[in-house]
Design goal:
TIM Barrel; eight-stranded parallel beta barrel; 10 helices
Length: 381
């Protein structure tokens, strides 16, 4: 890789101070959240991913996560979702990563998941509805034969063989992530997807060892976590994204999330990425700026785990306060970075910090923001 960056650290901004997730050092506390692009072909990364990830790798964030990536073909949310379940998937993603890494040394991680009963859906811009087989869909699986929406076909309840197959698929995908030299793995236990479906009593009505009590509902997600942690090299940290609440009475809630986080911490979890919702159409979410930050603060305070806050974090001062006040250790941005891929540059300017920028862009530094780009002296012709 070309060495064309110079690292400076801010002495004034907590948001731009360094942080470590186990052995993985980050230049600042800004994380590019995993964002589904629905632009893969048979699970394979495409030219879209090369452009999308390449752009975000120049953002100045501390860590970049690849979108939710399915561990088996029927675990994709849509037919356009990224996968890591075949050699072709590995080859396609490797080609993208090789190009991205040739122009950026930003650490890159991946989020691994399985959509469960929310799989086999149309892309959002095609309506997002459950797809029948006649339209390219497939039979979905879940802890219990309960559909996500009242008008949808019920999924198949997973039997012992299905549970073992999916557990092995998570392990194989994690090994492929290590083969691709990805530097962090996040296990997706949120947003109503399969592992969240096991956690919530609204979607898990099993009467075996994987259903009923909180310990039983946590059992399968914890087994998957353990299997991945055992398979990954020690230098690759493993974290978990959770939905801290279903926002539905009688569903998964913050108290249960904290119990789950304690169990994960005992197993070597490197961070908790605290989101919410996604399990039930009945959810009532009080959406507003930073609306999920109190959930992250509660998990961090109860467990001491490094915590990522997400959800309508859009302003530099807002992000700064979140980490400075101890609400979370890092902030993850999604839509704000799609709208403005150079958000960290402008946040650094607002907070009197510095950010790492490729020299090809040094001349873009506005006069009033001089000093934001580390070592950005460049001659003119």
């Amino acid at each position: 890789m070309q060495d064309h960056f110079v690292l400076h650290t801010s002495m004034t901004s907590t948001l731009f101070s360094s942080f470590a997730l186990d052995r993985l050092g980050l230049r600042n506390r800004i994380v590019v959240s995993p964002m589904c692009q629905y632009s893969a072909v048979d699970g394979n990364a495409t030219a879209w991913h090369r452009v999308h990830l390449g752009q975000l790798a120049q953002s100045g964030a501390g860590l970049l996560f690849i979108e939710a990536t399915a561990v088996e073909d029927i675990g994709r949310i849509t037919p356009g979702c990224l996968g890591l379940y075949s050699p072709d998937n590995v080859s396609a993603l490797r080609a993208v990563l090789d190009d991205v890494r040739s122009v950026s040394d930003m650490p890159i991680g991946i989020q691994l998941g399985h959509a469960g009963r929310k799989a086999s859906s149309a892309r959002p811009w095609d309506g997002g509805q459950l797809l029948p087989a006649s339209q390219g869909g497939w039979t979905t699986v879940a802890p219990s034969a309960l559909p996500h929406g009242a008008q949808e076909a019920a999924p198949q309840a997973l039997d012992a063989a299905g549970l073992e197959r999916i557990r092995k698929a998570f392990v194989q995908a994690a090994l492929r992530a290590a083969e691709l030299k990805l530097q962090a793995v996040e296990l997706h236990c949120a947003h109503g997807y399969l592992l969240h479906q096991f956690l919530s009593p609204l979607s898990n009505q099993r009467d075996d060892a994987f259903g009923g009590s909180l310990d039983n509902r946590m059992r399968y997600p914890l087994e998957v976590f353990d299997a991945i942690r055992d398979a990954l090299p020690a230098e690759i940290p493993l974290g978990v994204r959770v939905s801290a609440t279903d926002w539905v009475d009688g569903g998964w809630d913050l108290e249960q999330t904290i119990a789950f986080a304690h169990a994960l911490k005992a197993r070597g979890c490197a961070w908790i990425d605290v989101s919410s919702g996604g399990l039930s159409p009945k959810q009532q979410i009080p959406v507003g700026p930073g609306y999920q930050v109190p959930l992250a603060r509660a998990v961090r305070a109860a467990t001491g785990l490094p915590t990522i806050a997400v959800g309508l974090i859009t302003e530099a001062e807002q992000a700064q306060r979140i980490v400075q006040d101890g609400n979370a250790d890092l902030v993850a941005l999604a839509r704000a970075l799609l709208w403005n891929p150079h958000w960290p540059w402008q946040a650094a300017a607002a907070l009197g910090a510095q950010v790492k920028v490729p020299p090809q862009y040094w001349r873009s530094e506005p006069r009033e923001a001089r000093g934001v780009f580390a070592n950005a002296a460049i001659g003119q012709r």
